[in-house]
Amino acid sequence: MTAIRLLIEPKVHDIGFPVRRLLPVLETRSIGPFVFFDHMGPADFEPNTTEGDVRPHPHIGLATVTYLFSGALVHRDSLGTVQRIEPGAINLMTAGRGIVHSERIPPDIRANETVVQGIQTWIALPVVYENVEPDFQHYTAEQLPGYQEDGVQLRVLIGRMGGLTSPVHTYSPTLYATAILDDDATLELDADYQEQGLYVVSGAVSVNGEPIKAGQLAQFEPGQALTLTAQANSRVMLLGGAPLDGRRHMYWNFVASSRERIEEAKADWAAGRFAPVPGESEFIPLPG
Question: Where is the Pirin C-terminal domain (predicted)?
Answer without folding.
Answer: 179-274
